[in-house]
Specification:
The protein is about 75% helix and about 0% strand. It is mainly alpha-helical and about 80 residues long.
Length: about 80
């Protein structure tokens, strides 16, 4: 018997939380990547430390919350 056959299937609630976590990761990570590319394009035009902090706060934190939500929905207690 393989290991995959022994794992129970995901319930509907777990699917919903996994999808919400993945969407949070995609949108917050995608926006952070987009704005970081713009930031590095204009890197020589002043001090960007405040912008990096704001990107980490508004992009990085939601990404890790989405990652935690996805991980809890898919991996824990299976």
């Amino acid at each position: 018997m393989t290991e995959d056959a022994a794992k129970p299937r995901l319930t509907v609630i777990r699917w919903i939380f996994a999808i919400l976590g993945a969407l949070t990761m995609i949108f917050s990570g995608g926006c952070t990547l987009y704005f970081s590319l713009i930031l590095f394009a204009y890197a020589g035009q002043g001090d960007n430390s405040e912008v990096l902090g704001l990107m980490a706060l508004f992009g990085g934190l939601p990404f890790f919350i989405g990652l935690l939500t996805w991980w809890l929905a898919v991996k824990v207690n299976r």
